[in-house]
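Pasting as-is:
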Amino acid sequence: MKKTLLVVDDSSDITFALKKLFEEELGEYKVLIADTGEKCLEILKNNSIPDAIILDIMLPGIDGWETYERIKKNDKWSNIPIVFLTARSDYFTMGAGRFLGEGYVEKPFEPHELIRRVEKAITKYHS
């Protein structure tokens, strides 16, 4: 059975690349796309609960930090593992991303590293 991955990023290049990577190259995932935090929450409200979320921090509207907080405050969603994928590389962002999420990956990213982090997060939460 395919795993579901929700990718939240406002860059269509990133979402296209991740959809291709996880759906076509790996073939083990169904990828849902949201380009804002609000759309991410809407997908979750419609009971599309993914196995993991790849979440950008710098988003239009509510940012990745606020999106993360809203997900973790909801009992139905709080166990969804979140891997941060962001271009921000300052000390605070790296530390918070590693502490809060199941992983922190900087853009530009190494595809195999991102796959490893996502699969590790899913295994941890769903085993």
